[in-house]
Amino acid sequence: PLVLGIETSCDETGVGIVRGTELLANTIASSMDEHARYGGVVPEVAARAHLEALEPTIRQALAEASVSLDELDAVAVTSGPGLAGALMVGVGAAKALAVSLGVPIYAVNHLVGHVGADLLDTAAPLETPTIALLVSGGHTSLLLVRDLVSDVELLGETIDDAAGEAFDKVARLLGLPYPGGPEIDRAAVGGDPATIRFPRGLTKPKDLERHRYDFSFSGLKTAVARWVEQREAAGEPVPVADVAASFREAVVDVLTAKAVDACRELGVPRLLLGGGVIANARLRELAAERAAAAGIELRIPPLSLCTDNGAMIAALGAQLIMGGHEPSTLGFGADSTLPVTEIQA
Ligand code: ATP
Ligand code: MG
Ligand code: FE
Q: pTM of this prediction?
């Protein structure tokens, strides 16, 4: 089926078009620049930017795919989780589009969409069961995906800051611009990750009892802040490269260790990575190393499919159709806290 997908859960206005698992268009407008001076995504600014960007982005996607509106078999849209106001813009537009075209609409889960992105990576399409580690500015989740359209389980998630958020906050206290992830990656080049042993959140035996697959990054952020303050108070220069490398190592050490442990302990031979933090050079390196050592197949879709996009939402919609699932009824709304087990709203 030819499906157009709309994604507006955060700061990317994404419109994608797929035919089954074939990617025809993946168009993205981002309001990232508008948030830069605030050091993070401002919900009202994001919602307004979606409102302005959606129509041109839909047009551009149709042109990119060389299809016209009346050829579409269905519309898919992210209904949650995400920023309520931002989600509402996409949901409203998708409903209007579906009703005016007389096609079914599929309201889908953003996090499961991230997993569905892997279907479009044609070199070797998604296989299940798989463990999925999703890391971005808004979430840090470890999933067990037994079946993409019918069986997704949340193994763990962050209990405070998301990993990308931690990168953004630590970059800020090191005087680096937003978004902080790529800045820290760059600053860490030439730094020694062994200089400072920053804390690994929720890895102590007593924490593991309750939080086996959960993450925590706010203690790490505080530890970096304190370390930097002490250096400054002593009148010593802050070795930015070493701090960046040591911080990055602490984050990716925990992410990769818990993800690979989940594969091993649950007997799942593959691990899928998704979300904007997957751009991190050290995360890719350490994940590859540890997966190989554990005999686990590591899958990393291209970055354009890892960050928020409409193509992954269209791909999940197409899977629901091909799996014989009924469309969503028009009563659905934006649900900022939609649980990952609800694949379709
Ligand atoms: P959502 O959580 O809904 O997916 P988002 O817009 O916050 O939304 P993405 O756009 O997928 O998420 O990712 C952005 C985040 O990824 C930012 O926090 C950014 O700092 C982080 N990031 C980007 N590149 C890197 C990198 N090289 N290393 C670490 N973090 C990175
Ligand atoms: Mg984003
Ligand atoms: Fe996302």
A: 0.95
